[in-house]
Amino acid sequence: GLSQYSSDPRTEWDLSAYSTREQVLEAVRNLRYKGGNTFTGLALTHVLEQNLKPDAGARLEAEKLVILLTDGKSQDDANLAAQTLKNLGIEIFAIGVKNADEAELRQVASEPLELTVYNVLDFPLLSSLVGKLTRVLCTRIKERSHKETADTPVNTGPQLSPTDLKISAVTSKSMHLAWSPPLRPPKKYRVVYYPSKGGTPKEVVLEGAVTSVQLSNLTSHTEYVVSVIPVYDTAAGDGLRGVTSTLPLSSPRSLRVSELSHNSLRLSWKAAQGATHYLVLCSAAPDGAED
């Protein structure tokens, strides 16, 4: 599977999309480069929520590996998202090119770092890593597959996944989330939320007995994507996902002009709820510059 990211991650194809080496290589040849910012934390969250789910082709019994390829320093908290993946037993390999931050690569990658962190000066040099990285990946999969996995939950659905996400009490700066718990209570919930058009994701971690949360300090008149992900000792259940928009800030109303003179006028209006200041702009009509 492959996802590309900038300020808004995009799944190019899922794990279940192709079944032969030739099909994958053809998909790579047809890949269109996605420019933009470097929100690595948002990208890793996208991979967890969208790409490592059974309906995207992730087999529950298979080892989960993520290869991060980046040419810059993240503009959000990549370490927090990476730690969440690693806590769920997902192994991260970090490959840096050009302007990648070596310290960040080592923070994001799984141990042992001598096997999971790579850095090259330019894109053509990536080809020099292919042989070694292939051998390391295959060896790690074999090693991990032989470990005891009896405690790993073997199904998702109602047993491990919450249901019935309700978003209510939406204002210009806040919203309330509530959901029904899965049959098997999780250890914790991760609630991740971010503007749908790109922005730094924020996260709230709740105890498994909690089934609601108030999100505050949001941006007004903005569409948000929210996800509620149950976390168990050795796995994550399917998350709930919702989209909603905060309300616009209220506006002043009923503007009136009075007390006109040759060089002054008086303005009055009905107050905007919650406003602490007003900015008044005036200009000579119709095309005068602002005074």
Structural features, described:
- By secondary structure, this protein is an alpha+beta fold.
- The chain folds into two domains: 2-148, Rossmann fold, CATH 3.40.50.410; 163-246, Immunoglobulins (Immunoglobulin-like, Sandwich), CATH 2.60.40.10.
- Helix content is 20%, strand content 27%.
- The protein has six helices and 14 strands.
- Strands 9-8-11-12 form a four-stranded antiparallel sheet, with no helix packed on it. Strands 3-4-5 form a three-stranded parallel sheet.
- It is globular, with a radius of gyration of 25 Å.
- Mean pLDDT is 87; it is low at 148-156.
Largest sheet: 4 strands, antiparallel
Total helix count?
A: 6
The percent of residues in helical segments reads 10-25%
CATH topology name of the largest domain, in short, is Rossmann fold
Beta strands, count: 14
Overall mean pLDDT score? 87
- Quaternary assembly: single chain
Compute the gyration radius: what is it? Answer: 25 Å
Termini separation comes to 57 Å
The top level CATH class name of the largest domain: Alpha Beta
Return residue spans where pLDDT drops below 50 for at least 5 consecutive residues. 148-156
Can you say what the CATH homologous superfamily of the largest domain is?
A: von Willebrand factor, type A domain
**Which strand order spans the largest sheet, edge to edge or round the barrel?**
9-8-11-12
CATH architecture of the largest domain: 3-Layer(aba) Sandwich
Structural class: alpha+beta
User: Roughly what fraction of the amino acids lie in strands?
Assistant: 25-35%
Helix-strand pattern: EEHHEHEHHEHEEEEEEEEE
Number of domains: 2
Shape: globular
